[in-house]
């Protein structure tokens, strides 16, 4: 995974609280999907690209006995996640590149990526999905929530994306012109690097997944689930 967010931990917290309510809705949908899937209290979950811990917090709110391994390449992100999850004893933390970290882990019941895949160079995404497949147990569940272009509504999606970029001006209202400039650049880079929904589902099939489903679309985001046979 590349280091696009290296050193952004504090700014990331400011950004996510101001920009897009769908960022939070993703966590709710994914938590419900995992809750419906698990069949034992101590199911294991790997949260790849955990950031500041939002996904893990959502999961533990609905299934507090999950054993969650959180991974991020940025130590500052991990530190914030550790602090936010300090009341839980069933969280493990792994700093480093997600592909390298997963290679040294045991299999998991569930693996989630939330707003992670689009930050990975396209030539490494298939490599990641293959190791995700390998590190799930039998009938394991993979869920990805991310920005993906709807190939059936490209113009509409582009319009929504540009509106999101325009909304970044709210950061100027809290005297963070620097953050507005940085995130505007980031979002424009993202748009040129996104998969379509179809491309992502095809890559999942190539990795060996079955029962690949588009679970939900919310604004710029899509949530896709898949199973390991």
Under CATH, the topology can be stated as Rossmann fold
Q: What's the number of structural domains?
A: 1
Compute the separation of the termini in Å: 27 Å
Assigned CATH superfamily: Vaccinia Virus protein VP39
Given helix and strand content, the structural type is alpha/beta
Main sheet properties: 7 strands, mixed
Structural topology:
Layout: H1 9-18, H2 21-37, E1 44-48, H3 54-62, E2 67-72, H4 75-84, E3 91-95, H5 98-103, E4 108-114, H6 122-134, E5 136-147, H7 154-167, H8 177-191, H9 197-207, E6 210-218, E7 221-227
Helix pairs in contact: 2-3, 6-9
Give a verbal description of the structure.
- This protein has helices at residues 9-18, 21-37, 54-62, 75-84, 98-103, 122-134, 154-167, 177-191, 197-207, and strands at residues 44-48, 67-72, 91-95, 108-114, 136-147, 210-218, 221-227.
- Helices cover 46% and strands 22% of the residues.
- It has a single domain (9-148, 195-227), classed as Vaccinia Virus protein VP39 (Rossmann fold).
- The protein has a seven-stranded mixed β-sheet, sandwiched between helices.
- The mean pLDDT is 87.
- The chain is globular and about 45 Å long.
- With 229 residues, the chain is of the alpha/beta class.
